[in-house]
Amino acid sequence: MSALSDLASGDALPARTVTITRADLVRYAAASGDQNPIHWNERVALEVGLPGVIAHGMFTMALAARYVTDLAEDPTAVVSFSTRFTRPVVVPDDDTGATVEFGGKAGDTADDGSRTVTVTATHEGKGVLGKAVATVRPA
């Protein structure tokens, strides 16, 4: 029985905090091919008007999807995931990094047994993903 299957529609998902460091950004850039310097170079990020080096939006989305797959206890359970990027996650050049807090609510179960999950992701108290919804197939 997965954590998601134990929840009724409207129940809160268990919270999770994830730390993102500059080293994570370097690894993600190498894996994704997104070498944009706003994700590793403070000077460039500031020159283009950002508050500092920012995490890749797709990396933040991937962390949210991992959060859901972990709750489903099956990495193949998420059949769709959609979101909007609403704010950047600024990642300082230190040993602490930046934290993103994930939460959300379990949604209704469809006739085929799949259910929707609404995910929240916040950094420094502000949402970084908007309208984040996953559809999860039954175990």
From TrEMBL:
<feature type="domain" description="MaoC-like">
    <location>
        <begin position="16"/>
        <end position="121"/>
    </location>
</feature>
<dbReference type="InterPro" id="IPR002539">
    <property type="entry name" value="MaoC-like_dom"/>
</dbReference>
<dbReference type="InterPro" id="IPR029069">
    <property type="entry name" value="HotDog_dom_sf"/>
</dbReference>
<comment type="similarity">
    <text>Belongs to the enoyl-CoA hydratase/isomerase family.</text>
</comment>
<protein>
    <submittedName>
        <fullName>MaoC/PaaZ C-terminal domain-containing protein</fullName>
    </submittedName>
</protein>
<dbReference type="Pfam" id="PF01575">
    <property type="entry name" value="MaoC_dehydratas"/>
</dbReference>
<dbReference type="InterPro" id="IPR003965">
    <property type="entry name" value="Fatty_acid_synthase"/>
</dbReference>
